[in-house]
Specification:
Blueprint lengths: L4 E5 L3 H12 L3 E5 L11 E4 L1 H19 L5 E6 L5 E6 L1 H8 L4 E4 H13 L4 E4 L9 H8 L4 E4 L18 E13 L12 E6 L2 E8 L4 E9 L9 E2 L4 H8 L5 H9 L4 E7 L11 E3 L1 H5 L8 H18 L5 H30 L3 H13 L2 H6 L2 H4 L7
Parallel strand pairs: 1-2, 1-8, 2-7, 4-10, 8-15
Antiparallel strand pairs: 3-6, 4-5, 9-12, 9-14, 10-11, 11-12, 13-14
Helix pairs in contact: 1-4, 1-9, 2-4, 2-9, 9-10
The structure holds flavin-adenine dinucleotide.
């Protein structure tokens, strides 16, 4: 029955979470995805308790426990001297403090886990290999029936966004992320194989953590960079490595040696979507990166996409048909406040992580006197968040 049908454009983390939550509420869900297969796209992700709590509620607790590595701590380390500046405890501490686990895993494993759950859900129908352009949304509705809601979960280069007057287009942040995997026997002296380490330095930082059951270390280096235009990711070409090494000039030789040894890298221009409209008041709403892509300094893009999908389905399904417009407006107001706070946190982390000169010294002094527990307390609003419906 169309009034009880949801159409979702995009089968990324946002789209699949939304599909599962709506199906759990009794809706029939069509998910339209441009890719022929959902495979090894992306790299590592940190999954914070605000997101893992939702995945567990969706019945993915066992799958998550099998795929996620639970680090004991997140360390902030000087990229110049390798001196540990501060750390936030994770492991059992995180599970106890924030009520759900903190972990790291490959994005492809998270997507595969969600995909298996969607495939096992009779109310969900996944249509692969179907790219939707804005003008085709009407024909999509002709095919699947006019849905109660169309959800644009089609990422930073969303086409669904064109249906939403007042939605804003992505801006290049001036930064690029270099992503690569190191085998776990490399960088013994400098890489912590069990925990998350953020190496900080002037105008750049490097995050390292284990993935694939500890068989590899996921590395993300964030530096200033050029805008290559509308793209998701680029494989490095032979001259790129030199650019990366120049961006990290003056860093500790052990880290520079890792950059030299690293296998093929991929680099990702980092775009943000500014705070515009998400909904067109006519049955279409944007979520995840399509609505509010942000730079990864708070490691919250996927977590916010998971929260969006879950809370959207809760809000929409709780409202009678006559009050759905109001429910979507309330959802947008509520989520906008939360996303705004996450964005501010990411902007603050960028300032602190890439600090140079006296600001860097001040940062190190402030962090040195903060206890791990007080650093954890600063994250309570983010990690301790219970999405509506939990
Ligand atoms: C370097 C880096 C590190 C990050 N680290 C973290 C982290 O540690 N923790 C975290 O929470 N987040 C992190 N993120 C952010 C996170 O990866 C994204 O925010 C998240 O994946 C967004 O999910 P999404 O489903 O909204 O969009 P996407 O993952 O982009 O999915 C969109 C889907 O829509 C499909 N699609 C697009 N256009 C169309 C179309 N026209 N028709 C049909 N289908 C279409 C795409 O093929 C794709 O499957 C990081 C991001 C970067 C760049």
């Amino acid at each position: 029955m169309p009034a009880h049908t949801i159409t979702i454009v995009g089968a990324g983390i946002a789209g699949l979470t939304t599909a599962l939550t709506f199906a759990g509420k009794g809706y029939e869900v069509d998910i339209v995805e441009q890719a022929e297969t959902l495979s090894e796209l992306g790299a590592g992700l940190q999954i914070s308790p605000n997101a893992s709590r939702i995945l567990i509620d969706l019945g993915l607790g066992d799958a998550l426990a099998g795929a996620m590595i639970r680090p004991e701590e997140i360390s902030l380390v000087s990229g110049l001297s390798l001196r540990k500046i501060a750390h936030v405890p994770c492991g059992a501490f995180a599970a106890q403090r924030w009520g759900a686990p903190y972990g790291v895993m490959h994005r492809a494993d998270l997507q595969a886990m969600l995909l298996r759950a969607v495939e096992a859900e009779p109310r969900c129908r996944l249509h692969l290999g179907q790219r939707i352009e804005d003008g085709e949304i009407a024909s999509m509705h002709a095919r699947f029936g006019q849905p109660a809601l169309t959800v644009g979960a089609d990422g930073v280069w969303s086409q669904t966004r064109r249906l939403v007057p007042g939605a804003l287009v992505p801006n290049f942040s001036g930064l690029v992320a270099w992503r690569f995997m190191m085998p776990d026997d490399s960088g013994r002296a400098v890489l912590d194989k069990r925990n998350v380490t953020a190496f900080l330095g002037p105008n750049a930082h490097l995050v390292a953590y284990p993935v694939d059951g500890g068989r590899a270390i996921n590395m993300i280096a964030i530096t200033r960079g050029m805008d290559p235009g509308r793209t998701w990711a680029q494989r490095e070409d032979p001259s790129d490595r030199r650019v990366l090494l120049d961006a990290f000039a003056g860093w500790h030789p052990d880290l520079l040696s890792l950059f030299r040894q690293a296998p093929q890298m991929t680099w990702w221009p980092l775009f943000g979507v500014p705070d515009g409209r998400w909904s067109n008041d006519a049955g279409t709403i944007l979520i995840g990166d399509a609505a509010h892509a942000m730079t990864p300094f708070a490691a919250q893009g996927a977590a916010m996409a998971i929260e969006d999908g879950y809370e959207l389905a809760q809000a929409f399904s709780a409202a009678p048909a006559s009050a759905r417009g109001r429910a979507l407006a309330d959802y947008e107001t509520h989520r906008r406040a939360r996303i705004g706070r996450a964005r501010k946190r990411a902007a603050f982390n960028k300032f602190a992580y890439h600090a140079r000169g006296p600001v860097r010294l001040g940062r190190d002094l402030v962090l040195a006197v903060k206890s791990p527990q007080s650093l954890a307390r600063d994250l309570d609003w983010l990690y301790g968040y219970r999405a509506a419906g939990l």
